[in-house]
């Protein structure tokens, strides 16, 4: 890096996606945004997508990656090994977008979040209502495209928002290759008679002794929360990843076959000796996280859920009121701290 240029380095969890981008230093910080559209949530598996615009990438940078077209112009690149989504090429406007979670940040400001876009797709405001500002600067809140649509107020929710009571909740990736249902808590299931002491709320060294930590106070809901660990960030591409926790016996493939975690277009990646991550091999969507000391309980990517109550799926999920998991590993600490503050303030109302 010279005085006039800055080099951005980016990589996925397994390292197959590994590239650098050289920018004029005068272009920093890069304008960045948070997208809440249905397409991004379904394609990534996260409750929102964090993107920034960069100059063109050379063909060698993206040649090891798989690509999935979510529209005529949108080409979403993902790692075929670990499932990370590092970048997108928009043929319509001839621009490259980089997922901010894959950036290896240095001690200078690389990006600046300025706005939320496509909030209206969430129906309930989604993550945007928990993150009104970053670095003390209020974010613009657009119903659809930035500067081409209506600005929405904080805590916006659709006037047509409704919750349709149901015993099953569908979850699907962007391409539909991974399609399944989760059921409401069922206490006569064998898994519910076992203790799952692994959840560090979010990362306590002493496990909780209380059984059924994954059940909300409302016994018809599952617990949901955010993780900011390095592995989740680099496996998904987002600065924060949203999960809910469901016993495998209550996950049923849409084709009606018995519960299992190998179906459809799922691929698996063993990110450590004890952890298996699953993503769609066709569109790259993050789907499941499984750790060996709780084999009958998995983390399910919240972005895939199709709740009639909105992106936060609050008719099915109870979002934790405590800290994020592994916040000490967060790369963009300012972003995560302000999200946590807004998240806790909303949850305590």
Automatic annotation (TrEMBL):
An example Gene Ontology molecular-function term: metal ion binding
Segments passing through the bilayer: none
SUPFAM superfamilies according to UniProt: Mss4-like
Domain of life: Eukaryota
Residues annotated as domain CENP-V/GFA: 8-131, 201-317
Keywords assigned by UniProt, alphabetized: Lyase, Metal-binding, Zinc
InterPro entries: CENP-V/GFA (IPR006913), Mss4-like_sf (IPR011057)
Name under which the protein is recorded: CENP-V/GFA domain-containing protein
Species whose genome carries this gene: Viridothelium virens (Speckled blister lichen)
């Amino acid at each position: 890096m010279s005085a006039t240029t800055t080099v951005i380095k980016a990589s996925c969890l397994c390292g197959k996606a590994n590239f650098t981008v050289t920018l004029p230093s005068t272009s920093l910080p890069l304008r960045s945004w948070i997208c809440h559209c249905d397409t991004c949530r379904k394609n990534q598996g996260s409750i929102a997508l964090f993107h920034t615009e960069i100059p063109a990438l050379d063909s060698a940078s993206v040649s090891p990656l798989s690509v999935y077209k979510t529209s005529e112009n949108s080409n979403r690149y993902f790692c075929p090994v670990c499932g990370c989504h590092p970048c997108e090429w928009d043929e319509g406007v001839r621009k490259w977008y980089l997922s901010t979670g894959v950036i290896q940040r240095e001690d200078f400001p690389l990006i600046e979040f300025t706005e939320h876009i496509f909030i209206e797709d969430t129906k309930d405001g989604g993550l945007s209502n928990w993150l009104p500002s970053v670095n003390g600067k209020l974010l613009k809140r657009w119903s659809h495209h930035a500067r081409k649509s209506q600005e929405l107020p904080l805590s916006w929710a659709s006037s047509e928002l409704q919750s349709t009571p149901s015993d099953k909740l569908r979850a699907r990736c962007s391409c539909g290759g991974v399609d399944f249902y989760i059921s409401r808590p069922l206490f006569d299931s064998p898994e519910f008679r076992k203790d799952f002491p692994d959840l560090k709320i979010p990362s306590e060294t002493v496990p909780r002794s209380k059984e059924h930590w994954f059940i909300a106070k409302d016994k018809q809901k599952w617990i949901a929360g955010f993780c900011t660990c390095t592995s989740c960030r680099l496996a998904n591409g987002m600065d924060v990843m949203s999960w809910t926790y469901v016993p495998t016996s209550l996950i049923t493939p849409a084709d009606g076959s018995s519960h299992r975690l190998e179906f459809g277009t799922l691929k698996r990646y063993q990110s450590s000796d004890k952890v298996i991550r699953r993503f769609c091999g066709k569109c790259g969507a993050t789907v499941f996280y499984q750790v060996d000391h709780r084999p009958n309980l998995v983390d399910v990517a919240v972005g895939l859920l199709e709740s009639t109550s909105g992106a936060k799926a609050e008719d099915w999920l109870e979002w934790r009121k405590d800290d994020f998991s592994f916040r000490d590993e967060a790369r963009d600490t300012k972003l995560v701290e302000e999200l946590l503050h807004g998240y806790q303030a909303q949850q305590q109302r």
